[in-house]
Amino acid sequence: MSEFRTVGARLSVALLFVVACVLAFVYLIVVPSLRDRLVGSRERQTARVADRISDQWRRTQPPVPQEVAEAFSSATNMCVTILSVSNRSPLQLVDIGDAGCSGQGGDPTEDPVATAAAQTLGSARGVVTRNDRKYAEAAASPNAKTVVLVSSSLQDSLASVALVRRRLLVSALIALAVALLLGYAGARLFARRIRRLERAADRIASGRFDEPIVDSSSDELGQLARSFDRMRQRLAGLEHARREFIANASHELRTPLFSLGGHLELLVDEDMDEATRQEFLARMREQVERLTKLAGELLDLSRLDAGRLRVEREAVDLTRVAELLVEEFDAVAQGMGQRLEHEVDGAATGLGDEQRILQVGRALVENAFRHTPSGTRVRVRTSRNGELVALSVEDDGPGIGPETAVHVFERFYRGDTGGRASGSGLGLAIARELAEAMQGEIDLVSEPGRTVFTLSLPAASGTTSPELE
User: Fewer CB within 10 Å, N or C, the chain?
Assistant: First the structure.
């Protein structure tokens, strides 16, 4: 990228433009204003002198024009000229006395300010140019025959204005140079921070999440950097979960497939007796059921992650669900030497998907059987508490330790609590996400000799809501 097309260069140019505009504004305001004030002040001074001479002219009879001119010129250091009106049509003026006018040049009888005062029989003032020099002039007419003209050079005032103009221009150039240097340096620092974020984004895009994004400032870029770092951590967690998911899923699939392959090789043995063959077929059927269940769980997980799992929202009698669970798992409980009981604590009708609630209940009951020894009791209980209804699965097994309890709802996590630890490690994870999809939750309470998993759902009212996806 061209150096002049970078953010730093553009910010520098923008700063330079702003400073230039401010200085131009100051220049256009200060210099003309100063010039107008100085010229106006000098015009007012000449007007006051002209009025004083005119007043004295009226009081002194008959005045001596040359003496009046010399007296006021000496007192004010201005050019004083007394003009007489010799004719009014056309207007003609005659110089009858002047003092302090050496070097000004020009013909005072044709002076526009004096002519204006003579025509109006009043006063006039303005700026005139003679010999390329400017003069502030004022004229007054004490009577119909006389005009007093006072002139003062503006050379010193205009020189002061020119000095101020030059100094402003020099200061402006210095200010622009300093602004350009400071702006470019600051912009480069700013752009360097942006480039760091760009490189961090490239690292994240390439799948590298190990390097943190650090920017301790509290401005917008600092907040953006912290948002990037939170995104990096989140993506790192997702990437870790993805790899762990693939590794665990591969392991879970490989185990039953390996078992099936081994049994198939043994079945080709013609000398195998029928009892052993039937045993192998039964084991193969178990592995096929395990694969089928795992495939269904993985499919549910993918739908949950994609937000495409269909969940109905209707009134469901949790007491009926508990009865179905007890009927379904009664033979399993007897085969494992455990007792499965059903307890009802009042009517419990909640909003949810009956099939998904059954799926959650199966996961909780299977988990209780899997992690409790023979001779223990498993209870399926339903209850209502205010606006919530609950389906609980309680066992009197050894309990779940705190270090294990924080992980039981993680995908592929299989804790060993001293019982028969097996399964894919997906049942409780799917159960929790299904509960959340039905706007409910699953809680765990565990202590030695007692473990309770509770599915809580909103209590049903007289109406049902549309299905969720």
Answer: N
One-letter-per-residue 3-state SS of the chain: CCHHHCHHHHHHHHHHHHHHHHHHHHHHHHHHHHHHHHHHHHHHHHHHHHHHHHHHHHHCCCCCHHHHHHHHHHHHCCEEEEEEEEEECCEEEEEEEEECCCCCCCCHHHCHHHHHHHHHCCEEEEEEEECCEEEEEEEEEEECCEEEEEEEECHHHHHHHHHHHHHHHHHHHHHHHHHHHHHHHHHHHHHHHHHHHHHHHHHHHCCCCCCCCCCCCCCHHHHHHHHHHHHHHHHHHHHHHHHHHHHHHHHHHHHHHHHHHHHHHHHCCCCCCHHHHHHHHHHHHHHHHHHHHHHHHHHHHHHHHHCCCCECCEEEEHHHHHHHHHHHHHHHHHHCCCEEEEEEECCCEEEECHHHHHHHHHHHHHHHHHCCCCCCEEEEEEEEECCEEEEEEEECCCCCCHHHHCCCCCCCCCCCCCCCCCCCCCHHHHHHHHHHHCCCEEEEEEECCEEEEEEEEEECCCCCCCCEC
Mean pLDDT of the chain: 81
CB 335 within 8 A of CB 420: no
Question: pLDDT (tens digit, 9 = 90+) per residue, 219-254?
Answer: 777 888 888 888 888 888 777 767 776 776 776 677
- Rg, C-alpha atoms of the chain: 52
Write down the pLDDT at residue 389.
92
Partners of 345 in the β-ladder:
383
Distance of CA 307 to the CA centre of its chain: 28
**pTM confidence score:** 0.47
Token pair for 368: 């209780």
- Name the one residue in this structure whose structure tokens are 């209804």: 389
Dihedral sign computed on CA atoms, order 80, 84, 88, 89: negative
Which pLDDT belongs to residue 391? 92
What CA–CA distance (Å, rounded) separates 71 from 73?
6
CB atoms under 10 Å from CB of 79, counted, come to 24
Closest CA to 318 of 366, 385, 408: 385
Beta-strand pair 349-352/314-317: antiparallel
**What residue type is assigned to position 390 of the chain?**
A
Start-to-end C-alpha separation, the chain: 48
pLDDT exceeds 60 at position 386: yes
Phi then psi for residue 339, to 5 deg, are -110, 130
Most confident of 13-17, 239-243, 334-338, 407-411: 334-338
Q: Return all residues near 384 (Cβ < 8 A) that are at least 6 apart.
A: 345, 346, 347, 348, 390, 459
